[in-house]
Specification:
With 530 residues, this protein is mostly helical. It contains 17 helices and six strands.
């Protein structure tokens, strides 16, 4: 079909007859050809194809027309929705304006009512005040008139009786004067007579003098004896206040009570469970030698005096714990003293330090002294700026009381800064032991031991599953910090919903402790710089 044919040539219904004419001509030509039949079929096929194309074109036009109508309809709906939305918003705006106007009017009315009420109250208060003031003035005036009449009447009576009253007062004062003079004369006469008789009687005078002298001597002697006796009892039975902790029982301990006794028993039972310490092999071997030498002392196999030790290293590495364990394992008393407390006593530090050494002399067993933070009071005596005279005297007292070798007691100094200690004190030390931070194996042993004592089986199994990672992450932690980490982890998972350790709680707690460790290290660096 010819696409460029005019509408008139296509007919009323859009059909183009020129195609038939061309077909007729082609048929007449093809009839004469030997391939006429094939050519005819081919022409019919072409006409069918053209007819299908025309139908498809019409179909596309219809689809496009319906699509345009649909889009127009959607556009109209959108316009209607926008218009309705704007209308609703405008109506909402008008409603809000009406409400605001209504609230504003109500507020103005309420303010007006409150203002009128306040004015009314002020007016009533003023009237009440004026009334009370008037009544008060009337009462004051009445009282004034009453008092005037009263005192006027009294004054009038007093003027009339003045002469009589004056004579009475004069007679009474004269009588009192004579009585006092007589009493004074009698008293002086008696005292004078007594003194003259006593002075004349030499026997009575000597007896009185002897009695007073004897009473004074007895009083002074008794006081001294009582004081000395009390000091001896105190040295023997009382625990000195400077001793922070001891396993030596004292009936008159300054901290003794039933509650403290029960708590000490519980603490001892707990220590029996948690008293296991973990050190690297070299340090453990050195500590074993120290412990074994004390056992030989106890068995009296050797008669050499006790040795004194200095334990130094970072905080929380087991210095105090090992000293306590050393005393308990060798049937010794131990006494823990804090050097900072001694340095804070001022002029009383020498007296209190002597009390400790006197207390030792009355001990049934041998005693191990552990002086924690020993650098706080055993500082270099050449430091005249930071060392007071009282503290210097205290150091001299310590050196005097520890100068002789003995088998009654020995001391262990614990410190983080051994270079601050006085050279003479270093001379008293027989062996120095360094406590380092725990290595990988020791950290692993500490973590496993404390987790076994605190965790349930499920939480313990999960903890052991991650133990190598925890050991790696806690490099640089002290034994005390590792124990605190395990206890903190126990508290965290015990307070969770199911009360069981999981990966999230484990990693959160571990990261928190690592971050806290970094913060503490920063603070330490700042303090060293200052």
């Amino acid at each position: 079909m010819n696409k460029n044919a005019s509408v008139e040539s296509r007919g009323m219904y859009g059909f183009d007859p020129t195609g038939l004419e061309r077909a007729a001509k082609a048929v007449s030509i093809l009839d004469k050809s030997p391939n006429a039949k094939n050519a005819f079929e081919l022409a019919v096929k072409e006409e069918e194809i053209k007819l299908l194309e025309q139908k498809n074109a019409l179909k596309q036009k219809e689809i496009l027309h319906s699509k345009l109508e649909k889009e127009n309809k959607i556009s109209e709906i959108k316009n209607e929705l926008e218009a309705s939305k704007e209308k609703a918003e405008y109506e909402d705006f008008l409603a809000k304006k009406r409400i605001e106007y209504k609230l504003k009017r109500e507020k103005e009315n309420n303010d007006e009512i409150l203002k009128r009420q306040e004015q009314s109250i002020i007016k009533q208060e003023k009237e009440k005040k004026d009334t009370l003031t008037h009544e008060h003035n009337l009462k004051v005036l009445q009282d004034k008139l009453f008092l005037q009449n009263k005192y006027y009447t009294k004054a009038k009576i007093d003027r009339e009786n003045f002469d009589i009253v004056k004579e009475k007062i004069k007679a009474k004062s004269e009588e009192d004067r004579k009585t006092k003079i007589q009493i004074r004369e009698l008293t002086l006469n008696k005292i004078g007579n007594g003194i003259s008789k006593f002075l004349k009687d030499k026997i009575m005078f000597n007896k009185l003098l002897f009695g007073l002298s004897t009473a004074f001597l007895l009083t002074y002697t008794s006081k001294k004896i009582i004081n000395l006796t009390f000091l001896k009892i105190q040295d023997k039975l009382f625990t000195p206040k400077l001793i922070k902790e001891t396993n030596k029982f004292s009936l008159f301990n300054h901290k003794f009570s039933l509650k403290s006794l029960i708590s000490n028993i519980k603490k001892y039972n707990k220590e029996k469970i948690e008293n296991k310490l973990f050190f690297e092999p070299i340090l453990q071997n050195k500590l074993n030698i120290i412990s074994n030498s004390l056992k030989l002392h106890e068995l009296n196999k050797i008669k050499t005096p006790f040795r004194n030790f200095l334990f130094y290293g970072p905080p929380g590495t087991g210095k105090t714990a090992f000293a306590k364990k050393l005393a308990k394992n060798n049937n010794l008393y131990y006494a823990i003293i804090n050097g900072a407390e001694i340095s804070s006593l001022g002029n009383k530090s020498v007296i209190e330090l002597n009390k400790i050494f006197d207390w030792v002399n009355y001990s049934r067993k041998k005693i191990l002294f552990f002086i924690d933070e020993s650098d706080a009071f055993l500082r270099n005596r050449n430091d005249k700026i930071n060392l007071s005279e009282n503290l210097r005297n205290t150091i001299n007292t310590f050196l005097y009381r520890t100068g002789d070798l003995n088998r009654k007691f020995f001391f262990i100094l614990g410190t983080n800064t051994p270079f601050l200690i006085d050279n003479a004190v270093h001379d008293r030390i027989d062996e120095i032991v360094k406590f380092d931070l725990p290595k990988d194996n020791e950290r692993k042993d500490i973590l496993i031991f404390n987790a076994r004592n605190h965790f349930d089986k499920i939480s313990y199994d999960l903890f052991i599953k991650h133990i190598n990672l925890i050991v790696e992450k806690t490099k640089g932690f002290s034994g005390r910090e590792l124990v605190k980490f395990v206890i903190s982890l126990f508290d965290h998972y015990s307070c969770s919903k199911n009360g069981i350790l999981n990966n999230e709680i484990l990693y959160n707690c571990l990261n928190s402790f690592i971050e806290q460790k970094k913060i503490k290290e920063k603070w330490k660096d700042i303090s060293y710089k200052h």
